[in-house]
Amino acid sequence: MGRNAAVTSGHALASQAGLEMLRAGGNAIDAAVATLAALGVLKPDACGLGSDAFLQLYDASSGRVRALNGSGAAPALATIEAYGGQLPFHGPRAPSVPGAVGAWEEALRTFGTFDLARVLAPAISYARDGMPVSLRFADALDKARDLIGRDAAYAAIFMPGGRLPRYGEVLRQHDLADMLEAIARDGAAAFYRGAFADALDADMRARGGLMRRDDLEAYAPE
Asked: Residue 37: what pLDDT?
């Protein structure tokens, strides 16, 4: 309960990131993007950089409702023939183009008052300095133990030292911090173009995935 504003999310520290924006003079969109970015660090199983984002906003001054669709399309190579009639739940052929990062930028550009560098600061801190693993995230990691163990890159992040982090332990995600810092500095282009897009393209080709740099470059939120 409160007299001035409220921020709610799936993790208390993410809500705290949003509240920090309001206390600094930002508006609800600044708070929402800060919360979403923090969730990408604190709950990467549900809301990571590879996810989508959707926003619905009511503007009290105009009485108008606006919506932002931050979901990406399927890769251009994702034909029925390529999948052989069955969509995979995991692996390099499973994802659509991630829409969240572009949605963050568009939401701030259209409705926000802060820039990406300001609203991503809490998320960068949680990734760089570490976050306490929540009970729910520890459980999610445990349930995905076999999936994580089958992928060396996945295991390097979420199974450091050969074991999953336990509830209450501090997990640091340095590569994620680097990526968030690049987005804060260069905007969504740091995610959809440049070195990251090239690396994703190369990884997809090496592992039989369908997403390419062109798919990332073509994405735009609606």
From this structure: 98
Number of domains in the chain: 1
| Alpha carbon distance 60, 135 (integer Å) | 38
In sequence order, the 6+-apart residues with CB closer than 8 A to the CB of 62 are none
pLDDT, one tens digit per residue, over 34-63 is: 999 999 999 998 889 999 999 999 988 899
C-alpha 113/C-alpha 94 separation (Å) is 35
The amino acid present at 24, given as its one-letter code, is: A
Structural domain that includes position 200 = 12-130+172-218
The verdict on residue 152 lying in a domain is no
Listed in sequence order, the residues at least 6 apart from 63 whose beta carbon sits closer than 8 Å to its beta carbon are none
Looking at the domain assignment, is residue 2 inside a domain? no
186-207 pLDDT per residue, tens:
999 999 999 999 999 999 999 9
Q: Say if 137 falls within a structural domain.
A: no
Under DSSP, is residue 96 helix (H, G, I), strand (E, B) or coil?
coil
For residues 109 and 17, give the distance between their C-alpha atoms in angstroms, rounded to a whole number.
19
Two tokens at 1? 């309960």
Do residues 103 and 52 touch, judged by C-beta distance below 8 A?
Answer: yes
Residue 1 clears pLDDT 80, i.e. is over it: no
Check: pTM over 0.85? Answer yes or no: yes
Token pair of 100 as six digits: 């969240």
